[in-house]
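Help! Submission page says 'invalid entity' but I think these are all valid:
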Amino acid sequence: MEKLNHHQWHIFWVTCAVVAFAIVCRLWVLLPLYADSSVRASSQTLILATAQREGWLLSGITIDDITDDHIRVLYRSYLRGEDPVTCHNISFTTGKRTSCDDF
Amino acid sequence: MRRLLVIIGIEGFAVLLALYRGLGAVHTDEAKYLLNIPYPHPPLGRFLINLTESVPHNEMIWRIIFATLLTQAVWLVAHMAKRLKPENRLTLCGLWLFSASVMFQSGTIMMAVLTALQGLVLVWLLLSQGNKRRLGWIALFWFASLFTAYQAVLYLPIVVAIFWKEKVRPLHMGLAIGMPMLLIGFYVASNPLAAASFISAGEQNIGQSLIHLLQTTTISWLWAGSAVLSIVGLIGILKGKQWALLLSFVLVCAFHITSYRMYYPVLFLPLLVGGVVASPQVLRKSASLLALQIVIAVYVFAHTQLAFYETGARTVMRQVNQLQSNGVVLISGSFSHSWQYESTSPILHYKPALLSKAKAVVCLDQCPGIAGYGFYQIENIPQEVWVRR
């Protein structure tokens, strides 16, 4: 325990570094949303329209990737038991949704 | 042996409080934590809760754990009060156990309960000596508190005071306290849904008069400690010149004013205990205070609506879960996350175009096109429910 006490600050900083790394990775994916207001606006419109059409709950949507021509989202259906997750690409140009497997 | 009996007695009290809560419904926020739905709070608490998702009676287990944590925290209260006279110490423990927020929030699976307990630990650290050797752990605890629920930030003045008391170098203190706050800020930025719910919570009381908001906050403070602990605690904070506790108290009040929820009163509780410990002379008539606290607690309990009925979500989904067919459940109208918690099938918003995928349809609102699609309506159920033929 004394040895652990000796390393308490190391444990704190390592925890901060690990969490910071995970968050930076996530922010990197979302960077186009912050860097370009038109991408932000069109992503929001696309996601809301797709959710409306597919009956999705917004809380189940996670943005997985943003490229020049499409946005990739994961949809998780939260329920009691294992949550099914599906992956979809939504085109910026056509607004059409396709499964990631078909891409 | 006597201590063991007291622990068992308190545990019995905790289980009763958890059962009382469990007879009602799963609140939408509880469902969010039980299912680990990623908003509004950071992931630590809900991740741990979600680990037991597959365990039978998961919900009741967590109700009992939360109730146990909040009621058995009385031992920490007793430890904080170890320098007090035995009768004052006993009184403070009684004031804790008979606080309305302990009695009514014990069995709820809410992050506010965990935050209040984390606040109690921080108040204990503030009022104890020898923190120099454990500042790294305190920083880590602060980090964990923030990543359990954002409301932990309300106890920031206490954390600053703990580090300040130990004369930590300003840069070191700034990093130890500021880094977790910076990371939680980045976490919000990386989670657009959390950010959106943040803004929505902040705007929720816009349009209400200041008088009404102050009234709600005052009731919440009085309710938190069944009036007696609320008043003596605040007097203690002021008499003991506990500026850190007072600042946190002001922050909790401000938080109530901007985004009141019925499960926030418990956030006052650790501050009130801190006030009494810092200025024990407020317990001069300890026996009368404890008696009054018990009377008020019983009065509040007797005048509370006891909701011993299950919600429509539970009744409906019990039937729907028994259907042999595969498919999603469509729900029309606005519904809470408790519907997802009760369901073993994916839930989607109702759209006539999705009927081909559905095994059941719940119409909380109009369901256009349902009658002509090979579904029949279940009778004797509180909601309009259609299942596939």
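Support: the input was valid. A stray whitespace character was the problem, and the output above is from the cleaned input. The mean pLDDT of chain B is 91.
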